[in-house]
């Protein structure tokens, strides 16, 4: 994912939209499977725990849909006088997989599309809001850190020494009010610092450390064209899948194959970039 | 007229009757580095702020402040923002954005500089200051010294002609402070910027400055080269406390000399004129030794896999003594204090209070008449709107304090000066009548005279039976306050001795007085010790 993370934020945004949204819009088992297969190798940074939660979520989706939905013809067994159908289980599996795939994409997205990249995108249209957000982003860790400091300081002179709950709540309220005072006091100095550096003296320009390069521009059609190629057959119903009362099977018409191939092409992008980077590096090394 | 020219400026705050500045005039040419020195409340910050109208406090001003012949009030706002840079004391609060690159760009963006030019200027400023490696970091992840460097850098990006620095190193540890001052020296040497700087650390600053302004009660009492300004200082002036050690030694021993000594080398030259028949002061007798707090092979870690902060550290704090724990930034000094108050879980070993393991005390027991911690930032102790409420809420007995807080009663704790805040915090910490007081950097950010006053108060409390343990990175404070000094390094205590043994045996981490005495006298820690020893030895006979 690193290779993609180095690209322009706009490209990132587009890619993630093109990779994650079709899962919901097309609602086709092949698309969902492709998406899941593409995202899993990229999630190396997640801990075991995250994967375990995802697995649980998938299992829960299957169980809940199986128990709640009684549509479908293929009855497997009766449970509390209600039928448990193969179609309901299958649909649960698909919806669960789609959900899991989306969550993986979102997780990956939030790791790659860091706050400063969002701000950059926002900054071109709403510079003031972007600055406000940037300040806020800085303020939260500052606030949390100060809260910890105040708590520790108060403990150090014995503010939390009583064991009753009421005392604890009272102490916490005082700490909170002290935090607000500190925040206001702090804010005044920051505002001074902004003013001292010319903030509010007229329209401001915007500097961004990232630039939309030719390589970024080259990626645009590589995302947009296949996405369109997948969207057209999907919109004309080539991917239509019926789940109830009987599963219609995986759509395998010509249009469907075009959509699968096009979507797969989008998903390949981070791998291509990674491969290109690796090759370039190798070529570089051989020339050293 | 080139550079900064302040003509007959007086200023009265809107809230007070007494003028903060009275008829002040000064002239600073491009390339001048001028130190402004005075006690808290002498008007030095006011002077600096008036030079930057955006920062000017509310009140009545007369007289004129000009930059290159134009009144600073008449300069267009953008030009003013670009040409006058201002850096304040607390590094944290001046930072506006969350990323280093954005912080650097902020000023330039605000005054509408084209993006291409911002890019170039950031590149050259970051290169000059050696901070290119941090560009993508979160500002919150920087250390205090790095933050202050960033503040200076973001002001330099717009290329100011006048740089105003209000105690820029007060909140930094000695190493970071020295780095920042070195950098200023480089800017001063290589660029024609007018620099006006308020500082307490005159020891390092004065040799770099062209001029020294001394302010007292809003009046300019000296405006000359540092050497001549100090020479004109009356013996009784409270400003002496912060003057370079060499100058103080000279004034005490050779008051008739007119060439003022400023550097360690100057000081050594003075010492060589005294005999060396008795090379050391007699060591102080250690008092009776009954342990109050004992750390026995204490290990503390904050993360499971990271290196431990304290590594089987052993240390004893004896009853009635004053122990100073020294060490670099982030070496775990504060953690040692926190383990003694049970604020940090101990992973291995144990802490004993009066011979009983700390974990056998309830919180109630521990903080009533046993232990109190004075935190590094006194503001973290303040919960109410007035000093009176603060004291009443914790049941502090103001009458039992060795100082008087009553004049401050109606004021808001945040409006007090640094020294007053520290005294209020101390009163709160003493409210539960602790027998052991643990102090975290009690003299941080204070001017020398205030520092000496706080040290004197702590010494008086010690004489009343309080056991003190102070964590500090300032050798000067430790030399004055400690009966015993311990150095923490790599999570362990590497040496512990009385200051008169500890400091002379250190070559780098030591007081200015010791650096001056090095290689000549031993058994001294403070300027007073050196002066005392010189007097005992007497002047050398003039060479025949």
Q: How many strand segments of chain B?
A: 20
* CA-based shape of chain A: extended
**Helical stretch count of chain A?**
10
Q: What is the number of domains of chain A?
A: 2
Share in β-strands of chain A: under 5%
What amount of the residues of chain B lies in strands? Answer: 15-25%
Q: Give the helix tally of chain B.
A: 19
CATH H-tier superfamily of the largest domain in chain B: P-loop containing nucleotide triphosphate hydrolases
Rg of Cα set of chain B:
25 Å
Provide the spatial order of strands within the biggest beta sheet of chain B: 6-7-8-3-9-10
What is the total domain count of chain B? Answer: 3
Q: How far apart lie the N and C ends of chain B? A: 55 Å
Write the layout of secondary structure elements.
The complex is a heterodimer of chains A (288) and B (544).
Chain A: H1 2-5, H2 9-26, H3 29-39, H4 48-68, E1 75-79, E2 82-85, H5 86-112, H6 115-125, H7 127-156, H8 165-196, H9 214-235, H10 254-287
Antiparallel strand pairs in A: 1-2
Chain B: E1 4-13, E2 19-28, E3 33-38, H1 44-50, E4 59-67, E5 70-71, H2 77-83, E6 84-87, H3 100-110, H4 115-129, H5 144-156, E7 162-166, H6 174-190, E8 194-198, H7 202-205, E9 211-216, E10 219-224, H8 226-231, H9 245-253, H10 264-271, E11 291-300, E12 310-318, E13 322-326, H11 333-340, E14 348-353, E15 356-357, H12 363-367, E16 371-374, H13 387-393, H14 418-430, E17 436-440, H15 448-463, E18 467-472, H16 475-481, E19 484-489, E20 492-497, H17 499-505, H18 512-517, H19 527-537
Give your account of this protein's structure.
- The complex is a heterodimer of chains A (288) and B (544).
- Chain A has 10 helices and 2 strands, in the order ααααββαααααα.
- Chain A has 288 residues and is mostly helical.
- In chain A, a hairpin with a 2-residue loop joins β1 and β2 (82-85).
- With 544 residues, chain B is of the alpha/beta class.
- Chain B is 33% helix and 22% strand.
- In chain B, the strands form 4 sheets. A 6-stranded mixed sheet of chain B has the order 6-7-8-3-9-10, with helices on both faces.
- Chain B starts with a strand and ends in a 7-residue tail after the last helix.
- The relative contact order of chain B is 0.10.
- At the A-B interface, α7 and α8 of A face α2, α3, α4, α5 and α12 of B.
